[in-house]
Specification:
alpha/beta; three-stranded antiparallel beta sheet; 14 helices; globular; binds pyridoxal-5'-phosphate
Length: 408
């Protein structure tokens, strides 16, 4: 029999979803064990419900959204997105500069497919949301990781970025607020990235899907608002802000000066048309979702569930010997550091696997986010405090006797 292999272009494209930790969790669940999942940024399983008006609008529109829409999206959805862009100061976004997508994920992959030739380089943060690295690779490019510096609250290291730019560098990815660190970048940092992109003639890819999920009275600044003379590709969506990850509803907007990106835009149009369109019922809720720009979701205010869960998880982690952590300001992720000397850790995936097997708690190891050293893990703090408490008690119990290089 012929042996069917995956396509060569998938070689070297890493995506953790199928790794040994996930396989072990699936096996434990299949065996009837309970596993506390702190690994996925998916609000619905943790009793978060979408706003009522979103569900009502979706239901009301089901019958008139049965057909394909224009490939770049329903006009009324794109009008609402254009208004949102104006509110955020993202310059020069016309209706034809907006593409709806089956989540931001589809558009990330599409943008890299349209942009990259073999061996082109894109600067991607480390740690990153790993779809970016995987998408650059899938498109034949080379992701080059710039460091976000834990010692300065996970801000991008501008000097590292500069050092890593070569004649092949075409773009820079900025994930703000950041997954997995929960960092929010101030205007001054964004301005420096814009200045570098201008100097080196780079396209900025801004993943801002967490822009409304900000705490402590902070305000998100869209990087494109600082770059009216540059070409920017901006990503956002409703998976997180409106708790509808399963609807698959995102968008991509082209901002700033498009005069030197005409051919690239032609490539985006081609790929957008090839997939016909994104989920049309999901697009129909965009106008109502984007009606209110300014109200901070009560979940992110003191007393709100996500705010209080962040307070709990941060304090709990701080009290565990051998763990250090920066307090996140946005989204619902925290990225603690382990004392790898103390725990003899040389393989963070093995650590996640050992912890899962012994305590039935599923974390994601830091190297899955393209972090170079095996000394971090990510917690999604969406579960309620009682569940987070169980997880933290388990971690506090597990770590003191854990020593990987001595076989445990
Ligand atoms: N970008 C970032 C930074 C994310 O964390 C995620 C999902 O977790 C996505 C994009 C993809 O979101 P979606 O495809 O649901 O719109």
């Amino acid at each position: 029999m012929k042996n069917f292999k995956k396509a060569d272009r998938l070689c070297g494209v890493a995506y953790d979803i199928r790794g040994p930790v996930m396989q072990q969790a699936a096996k434990m669940i299949a065996d009837g064990q309970e596993v506390l999942k702190l690994n996925l940024g998916n609000p619905a399983p943790f009793d978060f419900r979408a706003p009522k008006e979103i569900i009502e609008t979706l239901k009301a529109n089901l019958e008139n959204t049965e057909g394909y829409s224009a490939s770049n999206g329903l006009q009324e959805a794109r009008e609402a997105i254009a208004r949102y862009c104006r509110h955020k100061g993202i310059p020069n976004v016309r209706l034809q500069d907006i593409y709806t997508g089956n989540g931001v994920s589809e558009l990330i992959i599409m943008s890299m497919q349209a942009f990259l030739n073999h061996d082109d380089e894109v600067l991607v943060p480390a740690p990153d949301y790993p779809l970016w690295t995987a998408s650059v690779k899938l498109a034949g490019g080379n992701p080059v990781h710039y460091v976000c510096d834990e010692n300065s609250d996970w801000m991008p290291d501008l000097e590292d970025m500069r050092r890593k730019i070569t004649p092949r560098t075409k773009g820079i990815v900025v994930i703000n607020p950041n997954n997995p660190t929960g960092a929010l970048y101030p205007k001054e940092v964004l301005q420096q990235i814009v200045d570098l992109a201008r100097e080196k003639n780079l396209v900025i890819f801004a993943d801002e899907i967490y822009d409304r999920l900000v705490m402590d009275g902070e305000k998100h600044v869209a990087i494109a608002s600082l770059a009216p003379d540059l070409f920017t590709v901006n990503f956002n969506g409703l998976s997180k802000s409106h708790l509808i990850a399963g609807f698959r509803c995102g968008w991509m907007c082209l901002g700033g000066d498009k005069s030197y990106a005409k051919d690239f835009i032609g490539g985006l149009d081609l790929l957008s048309t090839m997939r016909l369109c994104s989920n049309v019922p999901a697009q129909s809720v965009i106008p109502i979702a984007l009606q209110d720009f300014d109200t901070v979701d009560p979940l992110f205010l003191p007393g709100g569930r996500i705010y209080e869960q962040r307070e709990y998880i941060y304090q709990a982690l701080c009290s565990i010997l051998g763990i250090q952590v920066k307090k996140p300001k946005a989204a619902f992720y925290i990225f603690p550091k382990m004392d790898i000397q103390k725990f003899g850790i040389v393989d963070d995936e093995q650590f996640a696997l050992d912890f899962l097997k012994e305590k039935n708690v599923l974390l994601t190891h830091g190297t899955a986010f393209n972090w170079a050293t095996p000394d971090h893990f990510r917690i999604v703090y969406l579960p309620k405090v009682e569940e987070l408490k169980t997880a933290m008690e388990n971690l506090a119990d597990f770590l003191p006797t854990y020593h990987q290089s001595q076989g445990r």
